[in-house]
Specification:
This protein is elongated. It has about 200 residues and is mainly alpha-helical. Strands 1-2 form a two-stranded antiparallel ribbon.
Length: about 200
């Protein structure tokens, strides 16, 4: 199990030990990352439901996704501690073992992304990039109507939605196993410290 050392905690100095047990949380996801996450989710949903029916809106949100992906790349190197990509290789190597242990309900404790979450992040970023780039290509003079561009855009967009569903299910499952709302953590930016409910 991995618990990253967390120097910053809220609500630990005053009150009874029971009060401190309930309120010990730490800042994890910074505001730019949280805004990026929810804006990207809205754009992906809008893009999924608008092709051929609302083509202009589909293009706008597609370009927005491209912009958001560029921002995430930049923020992965210059953002706050848990926004950075510094642990990706280590967590990806740990992902098979982590998923194997997850079958028995062994989750470990990660303040940032766990190995399964890191694997999902990489899969989503890659599939979103392929979908957004081929979507942008398909409206250019050079690639308009080119079969492999259209097919790649179609299949990568389907892959994005499959990954989104798996992502949501994974968040809900981890919330149940660890008795912590990861959705709330992505809204507030805070997670509880190990051993504190």
């Amino acid at each position: 199990m991995i618990e990253e050392a967390m120097p910053e905690a809220r609500g630990v100095s005053g009150g009874t030990p029971a009060d401190r047990t309930v309120s010990r949380t730490v800042a994890v996801w910074d505001l730019p990352l949280r805004l990026w996450h929810w804006t990207l989710a809205a754009c992906v949903l809008a893009a999924w439901f608008t092709p051929t029916v609302y083509d202009r809106l589909h293009r706008v949100v597609g370009y927005a996704v491209l912009g958001l992906l560029i921002f995430r790349l930049v923020w992965g190197f210059w953002g706050s501690r848990y926004s950075r990509f510094r642990m990706i290789r280590v967590r990806l190597r740990a992902a098979p073992g982590y998923l194997w242990n997850l079958r028995r309900g062994i989750t470990g404790r990660y303040i940032g992304l766990n190995p399964a979450g890191t694997l999902m992040l990489v899969a989503l970023l890659v599939s979103l990039t392929v979908s957004a780039v081929t979507g942008a290509m398909s409206v250019t003079t050079t690639f308009f109507g080119v079969w492999w561009v259209e097919d790649t855009h179609h299949y990568s967009s389907d892959a994005v939605m499959v990954l989104v569903v798996l992502h949501v299910l994974g968040v809900l499952l981890m919330g149940i196993l660890q008795r912590e709302s990861l959705i709330r953590a992505m809204i507030t930016g805070r997670k509880r410290i190990r051993g504190h409910l």
